[in-house]
Amino acid sequence: MVDIPQLTIILTTKCTLKCESCSNLMQYFLPNEHFDTSFMRLQNDMEALLSAVSSIGFVHVIGGEPLLFKELPQVMSYLAKQPQIKGVELITNGTKSFSDELLDSLCYDKTRVIISDYSTNPALIKRLKHDEILHLLKERNIKYLFYHSNSLWRDVGKIFKRNRPKELIVKNYHACKMPCISLIGGNNNTLGGIFVCPIAAGLSKLRNKEEFDGDFVSLHSKTLRKDIISFYRQDFYKACDYCPNLWEGVGEIPVALQTTRTLRLE
Q1: Which tens digit of pLDDT belongs to each residue from 140-169?
Q2: Which residue segments constitute the domains of the chain, with CATH numbers given?
């Protein structure tokens, strides 16, 4: 029996904001580098995954900003209808209006909307649609959580390859304690893969995917169930060398600081 506690699905790297310290690396994508999947491709990815596992505790649907993904209503309805999936959460930054079609797709008992609160950043207040979104969700009796952040974020620092020895990469992985793995789609007609976290998934698109060979599970594998078990047994992942020294702790920065330029991996 293979049970996945938490799975994050990255639909797109496009976002309405450009947070300098986004933990999903959206600030590193140039306009012509952005990743998008499609509902059909995601459905193929999920059918492959669900055929290899007994259950998934929670599926978190993210971006970028997932409301920029045109087929989001189809995705949310599909995920909610899968009996192996116990809960589905849509995570939004609260800058995009909810269409009637999207609202209809969220009316399932296992579905909840998570709205990140960036209102402590004065520069973003005019762009946030909290009142409108909350009114619509309440009107439809859709479950939601308005995630009130405090005035600070964890500072994950710049992302780049540190070239640490293996023992320090292992140490960094164990210090991270990331609770969920991430699924990001493949290119063209290829199936996607499962990565240890959103940073690792983003790196697979920003860098040469072959650099992370052994770091991820390919969903077209003929031994997918066995590969997933081996994946969870790993004591480190190559992508962990791109993060700062997490065992030293991290600082704090103001919420959702915006950058006007695309950051580059050094």
Answers
A1: 999 999 987 666 777 877 889 999 999 999
A2: 3-156+180-222 (3.20.20.70)
